[in-house]
Write a sequence for this structure.
């Protein structure tokens, strides 16, 4: 039987986990339980689609068995199980789950800490085990397979006996060393405590045998005797360790910030606490519980094609879709979380979901909710909001511009830009608050950086007149403002547009005369440039610079540049 090697990156993470002096090893249990729960979800959802499979929701369970003598902890589920190929693919490589991203992003010195907060999945079993054996049988299959590994050296797979579908994870718990105590993971009370702390919300019963004691009942006359001593006997009871109430169904005032934070980090594979938590329950035209999180940093692939938006969707507590994209508009694609609704049918197909009226109502409610949460952050926690803006502002700006401006009203108050007046980010209403009395327009100028814009000849006169100018540094910025067109009756105007409308009638008259006088010169310059410009004019806006470029019509110079640099 050949020993197979783990993929290179898995091997490194394994080494790291096995050898780290690591205080949060206990999270291995949470990881294995969450896999077991996922496996049951999968089978249950699959069975809904297939009709009569004989499966009953009440029969699903997760069992924990402890054998102190043999130092073995076994965790069993009756979920979907893994085929030989699954074992190879899912347990032979770690690159699939979010773990790889974490590995890339972080310096080695941070790693030990990160493991504690961040789901590292199945591999965490090696933190407490000297040998991990996985026996699994796919529902409906007639063969079962055994995967075995002692850690970084590799693993074996061979056929085995297993009567029922599902997976047994058998951990041979490490011996204690001078520094480390592993015995605790063989103690029922410790295991009970860990399940209650980390896995209470799991919606299937997690069962374990617990020793109890009870009073041995005696006839009444005996208990009345003077020398009566109560006697106790011990017995074993198979108890359900978790309350099975998912966190989003709990009452808000029962929950602490840490409950939300650890749920978020566990479920959505982040190692930082979320910036905001939105927990809402609604009844009426749509009945649902939603638990949404605004991450405090952008995932490494956020601004790439790989990023997939969406919320988990549950129908009456059963997971029916992992990333339901229809629940989130693109502008809020960074939001993670879940929705649980009893209005949705359990075996609704993806195609049907897209047209589901309830889902549309929920989506539009959530959209408003997210916006009001962001606004409240902007108003009450400026620093947090600016951090949010640096992570996700670009997406909001794309959102204003995208969908032909369908979301512009939703988003306009959330926008922030640097400006000539303030060395910090400013919203449009804040800019308007500082506008001069006679000022008609909201001025902006575009460029690569704030410093470059500040040095533009086009904005000299505006600055001299004391008008503030918004500094737009992202390609999408001007497209977004053009889509908005105006805010509160005030039009946006590019500092590089030909007609800034800053002159008095008298000045205009004067300029016209000057142009007449210099007509020949202007024509000569235009000809010298050989058709590269459409007109050469005298300008009154320049102060220290002799010449500048400007544009006319809908598109500014910068927008033309962006458009002509786009492929296609
Ligand atoms: P993740 O849960 O983030 O996908 P894990 O490392 O925890 O990563 O698990 C890797 C994969 O192994 C899972 O996605 C799943 O396909 C498979 N797996 C793990 N445990 C089980 C189980 N008890 N039953 C069925 N499949 C499992
Ligand atoms: Mg997992």
């Amino acid at each position: 039987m050949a020993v197979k090697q783990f993929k290179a990156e898995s091997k490194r993470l394994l080494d790291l986990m096995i050898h780290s002096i690591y205080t949060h090893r206990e999270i291995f249990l949470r990881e294995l339980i969450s896999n077991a729960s996922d496996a049951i979800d999968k089978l249950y959802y699959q069975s809904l689609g297939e009709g009569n499979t004989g499966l009953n929701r009440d029969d699903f369970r997760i069992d924990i068995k402890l054998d102190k003598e043999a130092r073995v902890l076994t965790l069993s589920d009756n979920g979907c199980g893994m085929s030989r190929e699954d074992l190879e693919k899912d347990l032979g490589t770690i690159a699939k789950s979010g773990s790889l991203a974490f590995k890339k992003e972080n310096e080695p010195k941070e790693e030990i800490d990160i493991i504690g907060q961040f789901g590292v999945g199945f591999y965490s079993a090696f933190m407490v085990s000297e040998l991990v054996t996985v026996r699994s049988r796919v529902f409906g299959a007639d063969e079962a397979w055994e995967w075995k590994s002692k850690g970084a050296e590799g693993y074996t797979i061979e056929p085995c006996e297993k009567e029922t579908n599902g997976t047994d994870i058998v951990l041979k718990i490490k011996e204690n060393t001078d520094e480390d105590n592993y015995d605790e993971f063989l103690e029922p009370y410790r295991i009970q405590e860990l399940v209650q702390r980390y896995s209470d919300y799991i919606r299937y019963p997690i069962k374990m045998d617990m020793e109890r004691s009870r009073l041995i009942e005696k006839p009444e006359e005996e208990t009345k005797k003077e020398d009566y001593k109560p006697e106790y006997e011990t017995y074993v009871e198979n108890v359900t360790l978790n309350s099975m109430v998912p966190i989003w169904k709990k009452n808000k005032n029962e929950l602490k910030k840490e409950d939300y934070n650890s749920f978020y980090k566990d479920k959505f594979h982040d190692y930082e606490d979320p910036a905001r938590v939105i927990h809402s329950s609604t009844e009426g035209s749509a009945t649902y519980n939603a638990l949404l999180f605004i991450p405090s940093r952008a995932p490494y692939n956020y601004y790439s094609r790989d990023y997939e938006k969406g919320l988990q969707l549950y129908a009456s507590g059963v997971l029916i879709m992992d990333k339901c994209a229809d629940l989130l508009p693109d502008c809020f694609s960074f939001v993670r979380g879940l929705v649980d609704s009893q209005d949705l049918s359990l075996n609704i197909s993806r195609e049907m979901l897209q047209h589901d009226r309830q889902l549309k109502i929920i989506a539009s409610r959530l959209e408003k909710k997210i916006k009001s949460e962001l606004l409240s952050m902007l108003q009450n926690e400026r620093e947090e909001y600016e951090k949010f803006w640096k992570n996700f502002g670009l997406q909001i700006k794309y959102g204003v511009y995208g969908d032909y401006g369908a979301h512009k009203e939703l988003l306009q108050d959330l926008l922030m830009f640097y400006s000539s007046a303030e060395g910090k980010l400013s919203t449009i209403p804040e800019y308007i608050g500082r506008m001069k009395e006679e000022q008609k327009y909201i001025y902006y100028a575009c460029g690569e950086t704030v410093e470059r814009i500040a040095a533009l000849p086009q904005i000299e006169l505006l600055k001299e007149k004391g008008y503030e100018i918004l500094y737009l540094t992202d390609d999408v910025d001007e497209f977004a403002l053009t889509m908005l067109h105006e805010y509160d009756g005030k039009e946006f105007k590019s500092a590089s547009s030909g007609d800034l409308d800053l002159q008095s009638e008298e000045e205009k008259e004067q300029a016209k005369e000057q142009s007449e006088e210099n007509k020949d010169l202007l024509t000569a310059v235009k000809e010298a440039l050989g058709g590269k410009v459409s007109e050469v004019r005298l300008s009154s806006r320049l102060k220290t610079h002799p010449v500048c470029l400007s544009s006319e019509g809908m598109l500014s110079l910068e927008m033309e540049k962006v458009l002509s640099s786009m492929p296609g």
In short: Residues 31, 34-35, 121 surround magnesium ion (ligand 2) (CB under 6 Å). DSSP finds 19 helices and 18 strands in the chain. Residues 95-119 have pLDDT under 50 and may be disordered.
